[in-house]
Design a protein that fits this description.
Elements: E1 14-17, E2 22-25, E3 32-34, H1 42-50, H2 59-75, E4 81-85, H3 92-99, E5 103-107, E6 122-128, H4 137-147, E7 148-157, H5 164-168, E8 180-181, H6 184-194, E9 197-201, E10 205-209
Parallel strand pairs: 4-5, 4-6, 6-7
Antiparallel strand pairs: 1-2, 2-3, 3-8, 7-10, 9-10
Helix pairs in contact: 2-3
């Protein structure tokens, strides 16, 4: 029996199999995920991430991140305090948000492993191309909710599952560090369960607003 790593449901039937991995989908939250025994070990995962070369000053990379930065900035009060969770070795999004007058702290399990920043609370937090890598999304999601103050924002970038036909030819699943895959239904489930307002911006940006009370 496979337990959903996000909502702990045990109703997770087989979804798809490709050349290297098997995928399952939770009947409750619609998360698609692989078995734990098909994940990379920490060393192999770090080696894979080290091949990413995201220059914070590269115009193309900044334009990519602007898909999250711009709608988030429209919703933030001036001089807000934020956290870029999973910032990687080149925290370009933090640079963009700082340029707009906000303060942004950094956390990354490999590149910015300062756990003290997780003991604070923030007006907003961001996770760009992070959520699909999480081994324990249930724990991390609860952590994210606690990091954000009432009235605050969670900004996420991730590609999302559309349907089985699209998943079958989806290049996104071939990245060996991508172990879980959200859909709009998954985010709507979390929003309803945790009393959040969810907004979908384009195909890969999700903004969640925490209620004031």
């Amino acid at each position: 029996m496979r337990i959903c790593p996000l909502c702990s449901s045990n109703q997770t039937p087989f979804y798809f199999e490709d050349r290297s991995r098997s995928y399952f989908q939770c009947c409750r939250c619609k998360l698609v995920f692989i078995s734990p025994d098909q994940r990379l070990d920490a060393l192999s995962e770090k080696v894979h991430y080290d091949h990413h070369h995201n220059d914070p000053d590269a115009p193309g990379y900044r334009q990519f991140l602007s898909r999250l930065a711009l709608p988030l900035l429209e919703r933030l009060a001036s001089e807000s305090k934020g956290l870029d969770f999973g910032c990687g070795p080149g925290p370009a999004l933090a640079h963009i948000l700082r340029e707009a007058g906000h303060s942004v702290k950094l956390y990354d399990i490999y590149y910015q492993p300062d756990l003290s920043v997780l003991d604070e609370t923030y007006d907003f937090m961001t996770a760009t191309e992070v959520i699909e890598h999480l081994f324990d999304p249930k724990k991390i999601w609860a952590q994210w909710l606690n990091l954000v103050k009432p009235g605050g924002w969670i900004g996420i970038m991730t590609k999302q599952v559309i349907d089985l036909a699209a998943f079958a030819s989806w290049h996104y699943k071939y990245d060996p560090t991508h172990v879980i895959f959200f859909s709009r239904a998954t985010f709507r489930y979390l929003a309803a369960r945790d009393n959040l307002k969810v907004e979908f911006i384009g195909n890969d940006v999700i903004l969640l607003n925490k209620p004031l009370q």
